[in-house]
Amino acid sequence: MPRIDTTRRDVPSRRRDSEGAWDDGLIARRVTEATGGEQAAVVETRPSGPQSGAPLAYDGPLRSRLDAMRELVGLSRTRLDSKTLAEAGRVLDEAAARRKLSGQHTVVAIAGASGSGKSQLFNTLAGVAISETGVRRPTTAAPIACSWSDGAATLIDRLGIPGRLRRRPLQSPEAEEQLRGLVLVDLPDLDSAAVQHREQAERLLDLVDAVIWVVDPEKYADAVLHERYLRPMAGHAEVMFVVLNQVDRLPGEAADQVLDDLRRLLDEDGIALGEFGEPGATVLALSALTGEGIGELRETLGQFVTERGAAARRVSADLDAAAARLWPVYATRRRTGLSEQARDEFSARLADAVGATAAGEAAERAWLRNANRACGTPWLRLWRWCQDRTELPTGRLPLRAQADEQATARQRVEQAVRTVADRASAGLPAPWAQAVREAAARGSQGLPEALDELAARAGLPPGRPPRPGWWPAAVLVQAAMTLLQVVGGLWLVGQIAGVMAPNLGVPVLLMLSGIVGGPLVEWSCKLAARGPSRRYGQEAERRLREAAAGCGRARVLDPVAAELLRYREVREQYARVLGTGAGVS
What we know:
This protein is mainly alpha-helical. The protein is built from 21 helices and 7 strands. Strands 3-2-4-1-5-6-7 form a 7-stranded mixed sheet, sandwiched between helices. The model is unreliable at about 1-50 and about 395-400 (pLDDT under 50).
């Protein structure tokens, strides 16, 4: 036993170095009483070399998923409450913390209820009584760590286990080499009557790389164990061992029957079982008291530790669990977004609210009136001039002068905004749907007033409508028709007065030509003016519609589209977290 002698010689010097800071506590003293001089072999030594091995390295896919989760949390902070993102943030923090620590060690916790024999299993694997066992409940009040190799100090520091509760195993060199890199932690009882014991155990379950669940024939089907612990950790099956202890108490084939029933319960919990070479939890039956099945557990555990992949698999499983919790706030079962039809209908509603159609019709009537004034007979124009002196100017009509029209227009604008917000948010998860509606509501503030200003600027231009090139020719023809009437009338007056020779045919013909020709020219001009007046009205309506659509787009549609784009970004990041590489439907 040279190794024990060497360690025994080192202990006094280490205790003198720590002078007062070293205290094994009650458990250490009881172990000393039970094992005598062998206690020195199980006390954690302080190696002279580095305190931690090479840092843990995550592979490319896992790094990509972590980066995606970090980006996802960053994009979502302004849309989701901190409680929703708390678990994702914890997983990121723990993954970053674990990555800085040794990748050559695997931290495995032994968890179970009181009386399941987990502490006895812990002692059996360590080869010496380290953790206290007995009939008093709860037995394990504080976690105890046992490391099979040096360099695990920082990992155990992360667990918050003090130096007085850290041990080294007492085994043969071959057995120690088999589990090199293992850090075994005996957790407090999960069903402890002391709340702080349960809380400490649950805290450590979130930090370790793998878990050995120890159950006994009496409590293997305990509802608390399955509903509170196993079922929520179903996604961590690849880093779980489920051990049915105390099989020596079961007669005949009862052990196989209980083991089969345990597998059935685990399957109902959603835990994949690592059978037939498939990834999943390892289920074993053993007896820590008699040693039955311990060799198989030690061999399986040794292979598991040698792979050095438990920490990364644990982080990946934590990511899966965090992503599953975030599913309701990121995933949707239907197509989302704002269709072109919805955009067009929104613009049309705003155009109706500002009276674009009425403005176009007013512009068309104004153009026709000006054409009639320019191309009508002078006598008719004089009569209309007298009428217009008591009417509003025809060059520009007020679009919304009445209070009730303004109120109606405001209601139309608000209804249009609500409709487009509802369509844009349809199918989105609740937080993002709320963000879309809030963006639309912010944009709708002051929108009716802005539309009124645009209607005034983009409506009918001041003054008279533009004159086409044929108007002067029509005016000249009307002037000629009027001149014929005047000449014919003066000729007849001159004949009546005896100034000119009697000749009724020519002056009457001149007068009739002017009287008939003037209305005929005016009627022809009306026919010719229909096309240009319609185009003029359509152009006025188009300008007003474009102005209203531009205002609505800048104030409502663009902010809504920005929120939808943000949701698409986080959805893509969420798909990367899931590892699908595609959008989430």
